[in-house]
Amino acid sequence: MSARAALCPSSRCKPGALLLGIVLPNGRIGYSRKRLVVNGEFVQIATQGRAPEKRFRFSSPCVQSACKQWSAGRCGVIDEVLAELEPTQDAQRLPQCAIRSACRWFLQHGAAACRVCPLVITDCTVPRTDREAGSAASISVAADGQTPLHDTQ
Question: Contact at 8 Å (CB) between 106 and 34?
């Protein structure tokens, strides 16, 4: 698979993005088994109240060097997450995911990325005008629901 075809599993809520999953009450991601495409109506409704990225996980094409998280020719998010987190308790069973075959994180780290993926919540704390590049402003770890793993502001 070419690098251009890779999908970012921690993208913003925007028309054309894929709804990867929902943040569950325990702070982990519950994944959709199907590729659900986000439309303008979903974005309009989801942006009311809390940031949609705190309630859902989205995926869109990896923008590589146009992303603030891109470093040394790879996604720095999953590198940092794997350096700091232990896999989920149910690490033998990978989450059912609609994008695994094209997932940037999976392409970089294989099943190890899938084992920590349910713990990552995208936190878009930068103004909307800065969101268009597609990069996450920060990534929070869902283990306690509050711990910022890193911040690019």
Answer: no
120 neighbors 103 (Cβ within 8 angstroms) = no
pLDDT tens by residue, 20-72: 999 999 888 999 999 999 999 999 999 998 899 999 999 999 999 999 899 99
Range of the structural domain that residue 82 is part of: 3-151
CB half-sphere exposure, 91, CA atoms < 13 A: 11
* DSSP codes, 92-108: TSPPP-SSGGGBHHHHH
Q: For residue 43, what is the enclosing H or E element?
A: helix 40-46
Nearest to 87 by CA among 104, 109, 107, 112: 112
State pLDDT tens for residues 97-127: 999 999 999 999 999 999 999 988 887 654 4
Q: How many domains does the chain have?
A: 1
The CA distance from 125 to 50, in Å, is 11
Instruction: Return the biggest CA–CA distance within the chain.
Output: 41
